[in-house]
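Hey L., structure's done. Input below.
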Amino acid sequence: MKITRYIYTTLITATFALGGCNKDLDIKPVTSIDQGQAIKTSDDVQSTLNGTYSRLGSANLYGGRIFLIPDLLATQTVIDWDGTYADMTQFVDQQVLNTNFYAESTWLVAYEAINGANNVLANLQLATNDDEKARWEGEARFIRGLLYFDLVRLYGKAWNDGDPNTNLGVPIVLTPTVKVDESSKVARATVKQGYDQAIADLTAAKTLLPDDNTFYASTYAASAILARLYLQQGNYKDARDEASRVIKSNNYELNDKFSDEFPSSTKTHFDNTSEDIFALQVTQQLGVNGLNEFYASSGNGGRGDIAVKDAFIEEYEAGDVRGEFFSASNRTNKFNNQYGNVHVVRLAEMYLIRAEANVRLGTSVGATAASDVNIIRERAGLDPLAAVDLDSVLTERRHELAFEGGFFLHDAKRLEADLIGEPWDSPKLILPIPQREIIANPKLIQNEGY
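Output:
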């Protein structure tokens, strides 16, 4: 039996949403579902939300690869790639085909998760009380906003590359896909529309979510992603203010040791640390850590495909514990735990965003830039700086957040810093719209160069 799955045929049924091993999933493919049959109770909505988080944690999304892919496109001076997966090698070579498996899979699973969020939002009336309704809406809108932000960054031009009002981003779908017809074939929105949708969703999520929501999205997780988004746009005031809101909440604190944020084990799942604002849980039951898969050695559960170049490690100052957080074979120790959580956003990034924004704006909102940078440096075992400039802030950012979040590519684009092989605005640094999607949906326009 062959099931064709494209963006507009991705259907989230109750059986998928429940996240179990229901044999109904294996009976036959469908092209429509009866929403009245699929989601009828508050338990069904909660199960749909749980299933959506599960999709979000897929290895092809925030289980790791949505961060790995942009980094592979941009790290020719940082890493040596020794992998045998041809489609991963395409990213390293900056020669991605429109049939690339990982570019296709990221797109597909992202829209499955978006469809799950849309199903939750379409059934808020089933909530048993106002608090439950607000939490459902907030979590669904957080997930959708996070996804549209990262999708438009990967499959569209950078915000500062030409005109975001006319550059094409990704399709924006805001209602559940319950029947396949011509209206299901959605054209690409503009980059600006993608950012605007992400901002609208994340801003709403910020107002709806509680301060503490265990390891699910909280109000501060929404602020943290907004801070990252505004920084990507060059909107430094709002980036600063959202980052400061997270820091001032006192809900999070840096681990005493840098290594405590990245506990190492081949068998053990660890809970979020005090530094994690939002992280995806990885356990033996729930999936794999896609960063461990490629960065870690075989002794730590990975493939050992990526080694870090000596030149990058030598960038770190003497005594910097982060520069010592590599194995004898030059592999980063950040992802040695096969079942380690994937840190989507952590507190250290908020200090660095606020510091950069304050430097650029000539302000000291929340704290001076030097104070924020020195908090990070102190934890790294370094002496404080009397004053900082933009270069020193960006250096701390590069060394603190290396191999996390896809920042090697996303920062190169916002800073307009050319890479080895390609300039920052090269079409080769934008993922192709999967060819199978274009075949299925003629309204989709392919990116330049594909």
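The radius of gyration is 21 Å. The beta strands are 79-81, 276-280, 306-308, 342-346.

-- N.
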